[in-house]
Amino acid sequence: NRALSNIQGFTDALQLQGFETYSRVLEVAEQQADTALLEGLGIDATTEATQVIRIRRLRYVDGLPAAILTTLVRADLGTRMQRYRLEEVSFFDLYQEILGQRVSRSEATLQVTLADAECQALMGVEAGSPHFRYSARNYLEDSTPVEVVHGVFRGDMFHFRTVVVTVGEESPFIVATDS
Questions:
Q1: Eight-state DSSP code of residue 98
Q2: For residues 89 and 59, what is the distance between their CA atoms, to the nearest angstrom?
Q3: How far, in Å, are 8, 40, 53, 71, 154 from residue 82 at the CA level?
Q4: Buried/exposed 122-139: b ≥16 CB within 10 Å, e otherwise
Q5: Which of 61, 69, 116, 178 is the most exposed place for a label (fewest CB within 10 A)?
Q6: Splitting the chain (179 residues) into consecutive groups of 10 residues, what average pLDDT does each group show?
């Protein structure tokens, strides 16, 4: 039984199960963070740079396109990350190497979504097929937000397991009220 604080990223979780993983980098770009992203990365716009680095990757599992992930990090971290082969490295491992801290907490949501044109083109799935839309904010050991991630995981390849731990009064269940 792993401790609850032992967070695994995509690469480690799948490689431990015997799968081969790699990425194709689709884009690395700088962008201006909006209010939600500033909050997500814990950036104080009054005293810190508000530019972030966006890294979009197509993730493969055993040679099959499996997920499209967009990772957003502070610009200084993103610049340092670009010195590495982003196609081959675990971002969680990079954070430990660059920042000296492990990712220790993740707050994530999953929603069902239907394949759009990008999913069809990049993952070779049928139009309208069901997939998982994933959004997460991941934190370092000192509780600093290190990344915001948005992505789509193939519905025909993944099953997600959860461990629900109540934190204060916050419910683990969220009812979607918008269309």
A1: H
A2: 11
A3: 21, 21, 10, 13, 27
A4: bbebeeeeebbebebbbb
A5: 178
A6: 57 76 94 94 91 96 94 96 94 95 91 95 95 95 96 89 68 62
